[in-house]
Write a structure and sequence with these properties.
Chain A: This is DNA replication complex GINS protein Sld5p. The structure holds two protein chains of two kinds. By secondary structure, chain A is mainly alpha-helical. In chain A, about 60% of the residues lie in helices and about 10% in strands. Chain A has three domains: about 40-110; about 110-175, no CATH class; about 175-225, Ribosomal Protein L9, domain 1. Chain A is flat. Classes of the chains: A mainly alpha, B mainly alpha. At the A-B interface, helix 1, helix 2, helix 3, strand 1 and strand 4 of A face helix 1, strand 3, helix 2, strand 6 and helix 6 of B.
């Protein structure tokens, strides 16, 4: 009985690990394809990063073990092959994480004033990670200093605002009406289009629709961006 | 720049390939190997001649070392693909149902594990090319249907989507912008008329 339990736990943990890979891929693709910044996947990223670093430690230890025992004949080519596979696995996950963070940074750069406004009105929002928050304010300060120092002080005062103070909005906002490719995971989603039209999405279907129509389904995972 | 702008809302073909490599595939190990706990998945204990499922990227590493044979997926077979080709011809407005990563997986297997496939690789290559072309013609024909609000493309695989994405999204976004200006002008005109009425 106990053995069964252990086995079952084990199955579950492998299942969870596979989900980890999948959720990271989905998070990366969603972020890549969405016109706006999506909430930061705090727990997922923490999980992945801690697993990567413990696996890296394991790899280091194994290399050390291999170096010590190199003459004893314990080290087979199999052992090296296994280490190579583990290393590849780490690199592949690293790539996904990097790609996820980079596309977020590019959006933060592009819409920095917009998101600064957003986090200042909603302090405990989950939109940005802690590091991203300090990045965005530093980036904003550097950019405004640069703009002011190089040309804004020379243009007429009422044209020199970077925000909405002059009555004209100078803030670059993400265009949420942009069209995106989506893949439907769960059924029974009916999108309401303009002119009272409706679009019924079938599970597994692939569509191009406006991002603003599907953003809440992307949030709960019923729809993936591709 | 943290990411090149042409990659925003688009993928490189190599990235699509990367995603395809995460799919699982059956292998037939030639030697035994102890199980490995990876972060993303777990490679089970491999025993000679007992089929196991592993991610494709692992299968390709093992294959390149001569440690296993790859069991080709059941759709990567001449008869099946011919059937799909006929289906494509019969239904001019529908894409036949092929795996999400069929082009990438078949390309990987054809170039790295051609000896494990059940049919001669030149025949497979040619039927895959035919299928690819007929599907591309179909999606290009569909370009005349592009509109500003929505379109269904069920059946296309990720690589095929990626191929048409820049053009399709560009056109549809432009149409949407035009559409929005029309709407706005219409509203403004309406308001003006109201003013006249007063």
């Amino acid at each position: 009985m106990e053995v069964d339990d252990i086995l079952r736990d084990f199955e579950k943990s492998t299942q969870k690990d596979q989900d980890l890979y999948k959720s990271l891929t989905t998070a990366m693709l969603n972020e890549r394809m969405a016109p706006e910044l999506l909430p930061y996947q705090q727990s997922l990223l923490e999980d992945v990063l801690s697993k990567i670093s413990s696996q890296q430690q394991f790899l280091l230890d194994s290399h050390e073990y291999g170096d010590i025992n190199i003459d004893s004949g314990i080290i087979t080519s199999d052992f090296k092959l296994q280490l190579m596979i583990i290393e590849t696995d780490i690199e592949r996950l690293n790539y996904l994480v990097r790609s996820y963070l980079r596309v977020r940074l590019s959006k933060i750069d592009k819409f920095s004033i917009h998101y600064i406004d957003m986090i200042s009105t909603n302090r405990d929002s989950k939109l940005l990670s802690f590091e991203e928050q300090s990045y965005i304010s530093r980036h904003f300060k550097l950019m405004t200093d640069l703009y002011n120092g190089s040309f804004l002080k020379k243009v007429p005062q009422d044209l020199a605002y970077l925000d909405t103070d002059s009555g004209i909005s100078m803030i670059v906002k993400p265009e949420i009406d942009q069209l995106v490719f989506i893949k439907v995971n769960k059924g029974d989603i009916v999108l309401e289009l303009e002119d009272d039209d409706e679009l019924e999405l079938i599970p597994g279907g692939i569509y191009i629709v406006k991002y603003s129509l599907v953003r809440r389904y992307v949030d709960i995972g019923d729809i993936e961006l591709i | 720049m943290s990411i090149p702008s042409h990659l925003h809302q688009n993928l490189m073909p190599s990235e699509v390939n990367f995603l395809a490599e995460n799919e699982m595939i059956q292998i037939l190990p030639r030697y035994s190997m102890k199980s490995i706990q990876l972060i993303g998945t777990k490679i089970p204990n491999l025993r000679a001649l007992r089929r196991e499922k592993v991610p494709i990227w692992v299968a390709l590493i093992l294959k390149s070392q001569g440690k296993c044979n790859i069991v080709p997926p059941k759709w990567l077979e001449l008869g099946y693909l011919k059937e799909k080709y006929d289906e494509e011809i019969k239904n001019p407005f529908k894409f036949s149902d092929l795996p999400w990563h069929w082009i990438e997986i078949s390309k990987m297997l054809l170039s790295k594990a051609a000896d494990d496939l059940s049919d001669p690789s030149h025949q497979l290559r040619s039927i895959i090319q035919d299928l690819k072309e007929i599907r591309l013609v179909k999606s290009k024909k569909g370009f005349t249907e592009l509109n500003e609000s929505n379109i269904a493309l069920t059946g296309l695989s990720l690589l095929e989507i990626n191929e048409i994405r820049p053009f399709v999204l560009g056109v549809m976004n432009k149409l949407r912008e035009i559409h929005e200006t029309i709407d706005r002008e219409g509203e403004e005109e309406g308001e003006e008329e109201d003013d006249d009425m007063d």
